[in-house]
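anyone else get weird line breaks when pasting these?? whatever heres mine. first is seq + tokens for prot A
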Amino acid sequence: MTRVLFVCHGNICRSTMCESVFTYLVEKHGMENWIKVNSAATSREEIGNPPHYGTVRRLREAGIPLVPHRAVQMTARDYEEYDYLIGMDSANIRNMTRIAGGDPQGKIFKLLSFADYAETKQIQEARDVADPWYTGDFDATYRDVSAGCEGLLAYLKAHDNGR
């Protein structure tokens, strides 16, 4: 089983959007038996809260089911439990690395590092996924999340199938 954890600051906007989008893609491709998906926060600010209404609205518009979710915080144990820990921006990556006590196994990635994987077959330096909590632009976040999730799935198909 390949285990993927999506991480953002509060676990109510970007990472929950990723969890729902990626779960949808995994199921659509019949891969739910070998990919487990979850999400978490680097902060404690939203612990226990449901996904942001902007995330819920955007997923509904796209016809993607919302995964039942309440915000949780990433722990050091998550580093051992998950094969891929996917952050949304540079601050998330720094905080994830701090929480994990480093990244000796090279498991921590920025989501958009996978955005062009299907075309380039490479993981690349990537820009941040903007936080719609601040921008209010859930459409732009959804476009980035979709591109990153599609690329990550292509990467996993190429590297982890049958794990």
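and prot B, same format (seq, then tokens)
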Amino acid sequence: MVVAVRSVALLSDTHGVLPVLEAVTAEPDVRAADLVVVTGDLVSGPMPVETLDALTALGDRGLLVRGNADREVVEVARGGRCEHPESVFAAKVLRPDQVELLAGLPHPAVRSVEGFGDVLFCHGSPRDDDEVVLVDTRLGRWAEAFADVPEAVRTVCCGHTHMPFVALTVFGPRDGR
């Protein structure tokens, strides 16, 4: 039996900035949350090792979702190329176990949250960790980006934009989008 968590703290785009992560996770509401979800782009920044250590220290309370920068870090660590210097830096300094942890992160991830049912957490959009969907994105594009979301999911939380917003959108039947 899956038990729904009662409270969620939602973070995103920590980008290896440990002092900010520490300040946010020290907030009473975050400390009290049953689940702390970080929707991607965890380490590409100045303190990748320490930031990922702090995030993994959340243990079972933490749900880390893969972002586009996390994917890039893994690609670079495995011999690929990337035009983003912060991802190249992170790939060079992360420990092998940390690279493997990033490689195994889910995108998207679904968890049951009391009062919401199944909630989907992603970076970008559910279909693409690098897709940008904003509050002013045309409704047709929203429908395309969310077309494959399971029927049971009624709430989707995305990262990537660095712009907090809430959009209440109702789509028609899944087959008629």
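btw re prot B: Strands lie at 8-11, 35-38, 62-64, 109-113, 117-123, 153-159. The mean pLDDT is 90.
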